[in-house]
């Protein structure tokens, strides 16, 4: 397949349906200026309208919009880490870091900063392509910056091992340009541009000590106005080592307001840090600082790193993350105001200019009708492509999956390989973020193979993992439940259960409760779900939350392409031969170890 064809398949297959679930509308009639396109955020194509907000609570695991003019935090209760956001016309747009996951750089859209829709991704693959052909946990896309300038959307993002890159688009849904290196190098992170009033352009960034040996400082460069190159070696404009108590100063966002240059930047670390603001009359400094948001006496640890946005009506708001371990970095929305002393404060002002997070607050005032939405989680696999919630652990191969081989079902190919024994090393795990503190995820699957060692199922994946599903044990298909501790091999948590005669499809479920405590269950005999094994805690991955996913794999090979153990005869799900799905339903070359079919994937509240 040509490179153009490959990219087109990935664009279509991983971005063809809307990235939200739509659950009714609140407010006045939609003004002409906010009339949505067919896949716009006010009526997202592919979303399912199910009445007013009361039904939303029954259908979705988390709803930020309280339906009475207020919202509750987090407004994005999933791992949308390192958010940056802007407003263009009536819409707000948000991007987030994605690290090793593909597609990367999701783009979300909202009309009120509370109800969000995923509208696309800026990256269909990670570069260098071969390097990211296998999971590179903790690498890839770190904290991005999103801006709108000269009629285009710009995203500057860092890869701590390769440098700072830039992509652009005239439509935030895409297509986006091929990533262009702005500054190659190691340890360059968290870039943010500024186009000044006089036409000059600048870029500020932070440093990753793990790659460069330094951190806790911010470096400013002159940048070409077209954003393609930095014009100098840079100058440290803020050194956290010179500021009492500052550690891990990073994540800068550069703004200009009323003749002041502002750098909003977090410090103190991901879990327990705070948000500072720095200001100067010169972009080069010197900068004075103030802590403008910290945990205070709230349960919101480490409220920091995010974006300042202003509504069309002139209200100021601040989006930031909170690290919640296995749930990842969830996104909160804080009211922001400018004090009479000229400094901003986010959340509730303690009187000194230091804010604390709000848990519930009046929504931003915006014109028009807003619908209760949340980024999509469920998928019935009836569309032309996978939902925008899905991600792979590495650059995707279209031969891994198909939605056309079996109508209204997802087919995942059981390909053999040298790393199939450890799902942390397997690139073809199809995953998504944990969508709430408590929820259930249910699917129904069958495994069609004659190859011993082939397996597939439902996984909760991080630095440790556990999965439930089906495995071919040589002469039969069995239900298994397995777990792997950190840096350890898999082990059974139950005795494998042979499927009853005539039973091929097995519903599987994971229930997740506060503390990310998970419980697997299965319905083997059609009499209802039975818990399997003991409850277990989900664990975060490297810089990301735990992943909720589906997978299929063949037996482990000996590294030369041969099957190390077990039966080697392969059959496809229809019993007619071997098939590798190319994402469009076409038969690809090569042999596989069978196919796993997933009928649907449904996510809902814990009570459902």
Automatic annotation (TrEMBL):
Residues annotated as domain Beta-xylosidase C-terminal Concanavalin A-like: 378-560
Domain of life: Bacteria
InterPro entries the UniProt entry points to: ConA-like_dom_sf, GH43_C2, Glyco_hydro_43, Glyco_hydro_beta-prop_sf, Glycosyl_Hydrlase_43, TAT_signal
SUPFAM superfamilies according to UniProt: Arabinanase/levansucrase/invertase (SSF75005), Concanavalin A-like lectins/glucanases (SSF49899)
Region of interest: Disordered: 29-54
One Pfam family in the UniProt entry: Glyco_hydro_43
Segments passing through the bilayer: none
Keyword Hydrolase attached: yes
Annotated keywords: Glycosidase, Hydrolase
Claim: Phosphoprotein is one of the keywords in the record: no
Gene3D superfamilies, per the entry: 2.60.120.200, Glycosyl hydrolase domain, family 43 (2.115.10.20)
Protein family: Belongs to the glycosyl hydrolase 43 family.
Protein name stated in the entry: Beta-xylosidase
């Amino acid at each position: 397949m040509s490179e153009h064809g490959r990219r087109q398949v990935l664009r279509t297959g991983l971005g063809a349906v809307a990235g939200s679930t739509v659950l009714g509308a609140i407010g006045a009639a939609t003004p002409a200026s906010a009339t949505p396109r067919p896949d716009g955020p006010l009526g997202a194509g592919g979303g399912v309208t199910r009445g007013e907000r009361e039904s939303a609570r029954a259908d979705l695991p988390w709803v930020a919009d309280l339906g009475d003019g207020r919202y509750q935090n987090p407004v994005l209760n999933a791992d949308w880490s390192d958010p940056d956001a802007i407003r263009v016309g009536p819409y707000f747009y948000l991007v987030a870091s994605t690290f090793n996951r593909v597609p990367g750089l999701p783009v979300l859209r909202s009309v009120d900063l509370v109800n969000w829709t995923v509208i696309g991704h800026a990256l269909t693959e990670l570069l260098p392509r071969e390097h990211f052909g296998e999971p590179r946990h903790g690498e890839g896309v770190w904290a991005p910056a999103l801006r709108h300038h000269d009629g285009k959307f710009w995203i500057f993002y860092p890869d701590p091992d390769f440098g700072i890159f830039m992509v652009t688009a005239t439509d935030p849904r895409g297509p986006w340009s091929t990533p262009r290196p702005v500054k190659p190098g190691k340890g360059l992170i968290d870039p943010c541009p500024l186009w000044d009033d006089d036409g000059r352009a600048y870029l500020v960034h932070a440093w990753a000590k793990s790659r460069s040996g330094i951190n806790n400082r911010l470096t400013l460069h002159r940048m070409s106005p077209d954003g393609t190159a930095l014009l100098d070696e840079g100058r440290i404009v803020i050194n956290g080592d010179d500021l009492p108590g500052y550690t891990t100063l990073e994540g800068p966002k550069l703004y200009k307001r009323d003749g002041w240059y502002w750098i909003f930047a977090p410090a103190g670390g991901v879990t327990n840090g705070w948000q500072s603001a720095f200001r100067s009359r010169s972009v080069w400094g010197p900068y004075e600082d103030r802590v403008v948001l910290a945990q205070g006496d709230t349960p919101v640890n480490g409220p920091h790193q995010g974006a300042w946005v202003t509504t069309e009506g002139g209200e100021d708001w601040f989006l930031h993350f909170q690290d919640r371990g296995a749930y990842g970095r969830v996104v909160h929305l804080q009211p922001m105001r400018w004090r009479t002393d000229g400094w901003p404060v986010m959340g509730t002002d303690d009187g000194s200019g230091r804010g604390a997070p709000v848990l519930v607050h009046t929504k931003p005032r915006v014109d028009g009708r807003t619908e209760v939405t949340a980024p999509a989680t469920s998928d019935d696999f009836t569309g032309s492509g996978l939902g925008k919630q899905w991600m792979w652990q590495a650059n995707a191969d279209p031969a891994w999956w198909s939605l056309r081989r079996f109508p209204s079902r997802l087919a995942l190919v059981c390909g053999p390989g040298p790393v199939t024994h450890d799902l942390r090393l397997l690139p073809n795990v199809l995953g998504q973020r944990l969508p709430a503190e408590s929820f259930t995820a249910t699917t129904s699957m069958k495994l069609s193979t004659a190859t011993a060692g082939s397996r597939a199922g439902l996984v909760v994946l991080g630095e440790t993992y556990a999965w439930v599903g089906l495995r071919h044990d040589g002469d039969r298909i069995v239900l298994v439940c397995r777990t792997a501790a950190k840096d350890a091999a898999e082990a059974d948590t139950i005795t494998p259960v042979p499927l009853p005669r005539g039973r091929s499809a097995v519903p599987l479920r994971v229930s997740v409760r506060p503390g990310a405590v998970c419980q697997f269950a299965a319905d083997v005999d059609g009499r209802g779900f039975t818990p399997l094994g003991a409850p277990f805690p989900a664990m975060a991955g490297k810089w990301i939350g735990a992943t909720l996913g589906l997978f299929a794999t063949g037996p482990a090979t000996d590294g030369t392409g041969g099957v190390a153990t077990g039966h080697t005869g392969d059959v496809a799900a229809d019993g007619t031969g071997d098939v590798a799905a190319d994402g469009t339903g076409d038969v690809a070359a090569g042999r596989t170890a069978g196919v796993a079919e997933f009928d649907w994937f449904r996510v809902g509240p814990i009570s459902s």
